[in-house]
């Protein structure tokens, strides 16, 4: 390194320090100090959802005016809310309403359903619940022309998949899964839920390693905000059920998908037992690959009861 | 100007297409969507003979014959969707500026076709599907035009997607139309290309010369009550004879009408420069009568015998399940009939292969087959469960079947109408063979007949079918992520085929325990049922978890 380079380097450093000092970088630091990593709220679905997002600093932390937002709930099965195989319609409605309040330009609720689309939108109650906000909001794209081939640069098992156009075009992705067991993946939470935004999820079962490819997928579909609906927890027989439903009245919110999933694993009983987050391989791998943190005991958690 | 007849024809065709569209779109049908099929005299008469049944539903076809007796072949001229379609095709394909030759004796062919079919029917074998006009035209629109239209509509939606997005029309942007796919389209396509090309030989070539329903109606309309009458004003200019689409007027003497060929289209009446032609009651004295062409007794007997002989060849074919089931019966491998299908021989005798059930099948699993069930089973419906599953809450095939070859069942009965049983091919199964964690078959099974169990030496749970809970709906086979042949396949084993009686009772007698996961009701499993297996599927043991 010669003198010129050394000076340049010094100057750059000085500039950054000045920028920080003048307050350009400061607000973020301050927020980081007060906003919890995980917000856990007990209450009825609508109120708890709103409170959980508010604890994270409100929806304006995630959604800027004019943003295009995609909300990904679970509505893959034609079953009603009490079966807990789909996200509670009230949770979805409140998230959508908060996005609108934050000034979102376009809000879509999307899922590539397993069961017939109409039945899913109807029986889950999600389309009906979102109607007051907009009647053109809940869609179940299934045609390949609505998807676009996308590379997964950091994929270890799956390196390419077709993702919904609307998701690729969106500014903000919000994962809004229901907390449920899944007989292949252990649990189906925000990370597993991203499989509902791609065209071919079967291939993740037979060609790729399911857990590793879930993590691969989440490297490109990393939710900006995760709101896990634990108002009802499908503790056994997921993902479709019917199974044992635990009424937990809990909403878990975080901007870290892995942390939210990890907390949900440890917070609820699965098949009558307690598990550590690391016992779900895709959560453990996501943690190891730096996608998020599963060591919930080291995270800042704010829990309130309404 | 559109004549009265054209108006009726178009109305009739639209009604036919409307009913077919309803069958395709609706999932619940209080209306008689099979109405037009029930009007086809040969389709119904020969099915009654081959299946040895009489049903109230057969009355409309009988009425058509009765009407024909009094008013001539007005069904052909005004109502038949096949005739109207061929008239439309005629406009497109007829040779320009050339006169088409009169085909004369070819019109006897249709009687040969009729008696051929009759001969087979008497032996209990139905071949009506190769020639009954309503069967053919329903297949033409339902299995050929319908998917083509769906395909183009969808491509249009894809094409206009950027526009819809630009204008913010989200509903339009996300809208897609699924194209149904069908087997044996090639036959329907070739058949109708042939019919349209034959328009170059003569108008309504099919109706004149080949249609067995036309033949049957011709037999009863030799002297209809209302018939063509030519007055003495006739100058024998011959215009009428040349314009007659059915060659029902003798060219040498236009006074003479072959009433059995006449479809009362009244083209002659409209074209006559002398206004000499009228259609009147028989009381008008008509001195010009001539007997039309008839088959000789020998031709009649030979065509019947040929039909019977062909039927016998069918009955003695390897795949024919004639008689009681037992050793040596080589039932068609892997052939799954729709739920509620009659026992195979009755089914084949009764099914007219109109394709209505296949067009109406909401999951598109119901497909016409080629020779999988021998040539007696040509074009009959079978489930292609790899294509899609057969919904346990759907009985559209039974609802729309004009001849009840597939029974109309209540939804509870339908739910118990077991079509087969799923079998797992362990060497193909991801869980069994590759130890990959996959439970798609369990996830989709509406009957909850697949259970995942812990197998020693396998790190993932593996699927197992509970035969008594499986109704053969094939959702597992359809969704199995294994490529090509599924690792779980529905076989006809255990399928219930009954011509009468309750599937629920029969199923319970056989020890079946069929119940479906409710679509909308909250149905928690009884406390403890899924417990105590000692593992939670998908989770890893504690020691493998990194902390």
Question: Could you explain how this protein is built, in words?
Answer:
The complex is a heterodimer of chains A (306) and B (547). With 306 residues, chain A is of the alpha/beta class. Chain A is 35% helix and 22% strand. Chain A is built from 12 helices and 12 strands. In chain A, strands 1, 2, 3, 4, 7, 8, 9, 10, 11 and 12 form a 10-stranded mixed sheet that branches. In chain A, strands 5-6 form a two-stranded antiparallel sheet. In chain A, strand 2 (68-73), helix 4 and strand 3 (106-110) form a beta-alpha-beta unit. The N and C termini of chain A lie far apart (60 Å). Mean pLDDT of chain A is 90; it is low at 25-31. With 547 residues, chain B is mainly alpha-helical. In chain B, the strands form 4 sheets. In chain B, strands 1-2 form a two-stranded antiparallel ribbon. In chain B, strands 3-4 form a two-stranded antiparallel ribbon. A two-stranded antiparallel ribbon of chain B has the order 5-8. Chain B starts with a helix and ends in a 38-residue tail after the last helix. Residues 519-533 of chain B have low confidence and may be disordered. Chains A and B meet through helix 9 and helix 12 of A and helix 10 and helix 22 of B.
């Amino acid at each position: 390194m010669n003198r010129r380079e050394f000076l340049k380097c010094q100057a750059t450093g000085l500039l950054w320090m000045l920028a920080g000092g003048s307050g350009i970088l400061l607000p973020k630091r301050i927020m980081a100090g007060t906003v919890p990593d995980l917000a856990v709220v007990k209450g009825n679905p609508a109120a708890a959802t709103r409170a959980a997002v508010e604890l994270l600093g409100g929806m304006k932390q995630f959604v800027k005016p004019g943003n295009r937002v995609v909300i990904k709930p679970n509505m893959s099965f034609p079953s009603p809310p009490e079966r807990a195989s789909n996200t509670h319609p009230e949770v979805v409605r409140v998230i959508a309403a908060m996005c609108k309040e934050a000034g979102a330009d376009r809000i879509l609720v999307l899922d590539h359903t397993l069961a017939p689309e109409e039945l899913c939108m109807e029986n889950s109650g999600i389309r009906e619940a979102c109607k007051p906000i907009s009647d053109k909001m809940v869609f179940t794209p299934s045609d390949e022309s609505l998807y676009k081939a996308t590379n997964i640069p950091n994929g270890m098992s799956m390196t390419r998949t077709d993702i919904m156009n609307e998701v690729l075009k969106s500014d903000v992705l919000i994962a809004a899964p229901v907390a449920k067991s899944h007989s292949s993946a252990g649990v189906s939470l925000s990370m597993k839920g991203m499989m509902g935004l791609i065209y071919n999820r079967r291939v993740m079962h037979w060609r790729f390693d399911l857990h590793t490819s879930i993590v691969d997928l989440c490297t490109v579909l990393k939710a900006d905000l995760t709101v896990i609906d634990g108002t009802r927890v499908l503790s056994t027989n997921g993902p479709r059920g019917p199974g044992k439903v635990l009424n937990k009245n809990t909403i878990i919110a975080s901007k870290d998908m892995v942390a939210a999933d990890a907390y949900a694993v440890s917070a609820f009983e699965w098949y009558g037992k307690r598990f550590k987050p690391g016992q779900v391989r895709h959560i453990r791998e996501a943690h190891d690959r730096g996608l998020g943190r599963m060591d919930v005991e080291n995270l800042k958690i704010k829990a309130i009861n309404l | 100007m559109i004549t009265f007849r054209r108006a009726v024809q178009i109305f009739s065709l639209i009604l036919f297409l409307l009913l077919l569209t309803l069958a395709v779109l609706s999932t619940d049908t209080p209306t008689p969507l099979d109405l037009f099929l029930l009007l086809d005299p040969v389709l119904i008469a020969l099915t009654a003979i081959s299946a040895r049944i009489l049903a109230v539903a057969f009355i409309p076809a009988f009425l058509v014959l009765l009407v024909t007796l009094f008013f001539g072949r007005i069904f052909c001229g005004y109502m038949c969707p096949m005739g109207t379609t061929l008239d439309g095709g005629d406009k497109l394909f007829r040779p320009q500026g050339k006169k088409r030759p009169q085909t004369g004796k070819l019109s006897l062919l249709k009687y040969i076709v009729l008696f051929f079919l009759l001969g087979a029917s008497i032996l209990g074998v139905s071949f009506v599907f190769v020639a009954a006009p309503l069967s053919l035209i329903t297949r033409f629109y339902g299995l050929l035009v319908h998917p083509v239209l769906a395909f183009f509509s969808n491509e249009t939606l894809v094409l206009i997607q950027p526009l819809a997005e630009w204008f913010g029309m989200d509903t339009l942007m996300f809208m897609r139309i699924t194209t149904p796919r069908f087997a044996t389209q090639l036959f329907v396509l070739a058949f109708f290309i042939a019919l349209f090309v034959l328009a170059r030989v003569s108008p309504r070539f099919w109706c004149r010369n080949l249609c067995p329903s036309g033949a049957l109606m011709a037999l009863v309309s030799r002297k209809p009550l209302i018939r063509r009458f030519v007055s003495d004003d006739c100058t024998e200019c011959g215009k009428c004879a040349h314009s007659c689409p059915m060659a029902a007027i003798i060219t040498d003497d236009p006074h003479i009408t072959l009433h059995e060929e006449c479809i009362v289209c009244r083209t002659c009446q409209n074209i006559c420069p002398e206004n000499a032609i009228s259609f009147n009651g028989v009381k008008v004295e008509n001195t010009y009568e001539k007997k039309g062409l008839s088959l000789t007794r020998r031709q009649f007997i030979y065509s019947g015998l040929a039909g019977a002989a062909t039927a016998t060849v069918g009955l003695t074919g390897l795949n024919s399940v004639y008689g009681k089931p037992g050793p040596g019966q080589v039932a068609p491998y892997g052939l799954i009939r729709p739920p509620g299908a009659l026992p195979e021989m009755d089914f084949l005798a009764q099914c007219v292969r109109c394709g209505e059930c296949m067009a109406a099948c909401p999951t598109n699993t119901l497909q016409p087959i080629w020779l999988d069930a021998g040539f007696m089973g040509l074009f009959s419906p079978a489930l292609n469960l790899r294509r899609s599953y057969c919904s346990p809450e759907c009985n559209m095939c039974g609802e729309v079947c004009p001849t009840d070859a597939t029974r109309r069942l209540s939804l509870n009965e339908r739910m118990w109408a077991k079509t087969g049983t799923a079998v797992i091919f362990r060497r193909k199964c991801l869980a069994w063979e590759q130890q990959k964690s996959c439970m798609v078959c369990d996830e989709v099974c509406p009957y909850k007949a697949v259970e995942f169990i812990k197998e020693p030496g396998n790190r993932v749970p593996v699927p197992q079918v509970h035969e008594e809970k499986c109704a053969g709906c094939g959702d597992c086979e359809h969704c199995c992520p294994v490529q090509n042949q599924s690792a779980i396949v529905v076989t006809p084993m255990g399928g219930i085929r009954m011509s009468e009686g309750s599937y629920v009772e029969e199923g319970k007698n056989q020890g079946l325990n069929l119940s479906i996961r409710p679509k909308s009701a909250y149905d928690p499993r009884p406390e403890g049922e899924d417990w105590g297996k000692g593992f939670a599927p998908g989770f890893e043991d504690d020691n493998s978890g990194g902390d």
